[in-house]
Design brief:
This protein is mainly α. The chain has 12 helices and no strands. The longest helix has 28 residues.
């Protein structure tokens, strides 16, 4: 693993941030006409086939043995559940707002790591960063909405739940000593064909119709943020380090908000942008601590 980052590495990081950040916009377009569970299953199915094809082309094979059991947990918490929560929530929640809420993901990762792993010692920086992020969430929601069970509030909390799922997945990934290409491919296959496909078959898909724009957005989410994004994550880690890649957590929400404003013409209120700034400050503070092999990357859900 090379820790000396070149300009090319930073260009790759910026490109990956744009790809992952675009997912919020494209998911928002997809779920306006297609059922969320269909979008999730289609996205995972196409991505799993593509990633598996690349694995075979590279002359590699799927892992064997009991490792498939923790991989099933990774497939659930790292792919199927957060994708489902985000897709369902974005039926009513703006793409820019979803990107801001997902910016809390690395903070949940740090907090859960300190609670459930032995080698991640509690740090005043991580707890301080988490507290700052909570202030950002309060600014974003408004104090009165934190106790509200209105549809909009529930869906926003679902996005925070998706961010927590990635934190749980990071703990599972750590137990696997990271996530290599073969394990990642197995996780996608489990998520697509063991977890999400049965739910899709139980869903009511009668009258499934959508415009060409919606279909293109759905295909885009499967190919770029999901398949290519996942391959790029592993590639950049191999070129540089997990610590270098973790900077993506600052880029994804910024791209997500920017794309929503420019292409979807979303008008985010001033408190939303202030909340994003506060949350990112919390993430920056939480990063001021020694980190060991805990990998958690914001995939744009």
């Amino acid at each position: 693993m090379n820790n000396n980052s070149s300009p090319a590495d930073y260009l790759l990081l910026l490109l990956l941030g744009a790809i992952l950040g675009s997912n919020f916009m494209m998911t928002k377009i997809s779920v306006q006409e297609l059922p969320p569970m269909f979008v999730v299953s289609f996205r995972l199915g196409v991505a799993a086939v593509l990633i598996y094809a690349v694995l075979l082309a590279a002359g590699k094979s799927l892992p064997r043995g009991p490792i498939w059991y923790p991989l099933l947990g990774s497939a659930f918490f790292g792919l199927t559940l957060p994708f489902t929560l985000l897709s369902w929530a974005q039926q009513r929640v703006d793409a820019g707002l979803a990107a801001i809420l997902m910016a809390t993901m690395p903070l949940f990762t740090l907090l859960l790591a300190q609670l459930f792993t032995k080698d991640e010692k509690p740090s005043r920086y991580s707890f301080g960063g988490f507290a700052i992020a909570l202030i950002g969430i309060i600014v974003l929601f408004g104090p009165e909405k934190l106790t509200s069970l209105a549809d909009q509030s529930v869906r926003q909390f679902a996005i925070i739940g998706a961010a927590m799922c990635y934190g749980i997945n990071a703990i599972i990934t750590k137990s696997l000593t990271g996530m290599d290409w073969q394990q990642s491919t197995a996780s996608f296959l489990l998520a697509a064909f063991v977890l999400s496909l049965p739910l899709l078959l139980l869903s009511d898909l009668s009258g499934l119709q959508a415009s060409s724009t919606v279909w293109m957005a759905t295909v885009y989410t499967a190919i770029f943020p999901t398949a290519i994004g996942s391959i790029m994550i592993l590639f950049i880690i191999r070129r540089t380090s997990a610590s270098f890649l973790s900077q993506i957590n600052f880029l994804v929400p910024l791209y997500g908000v920017g794309f929503a404003i420019v292409f979807l013409h979303e008008a985010l209120p001033p408190n939303a942008l202030l909340a994003l700034l506060i949350i990112l400050c919390g993430v920056a503070l939480a990063r001021r601590r020694p980190k060991r092999n805990l990998i958690s990357i914001n995939k744009g859900a």
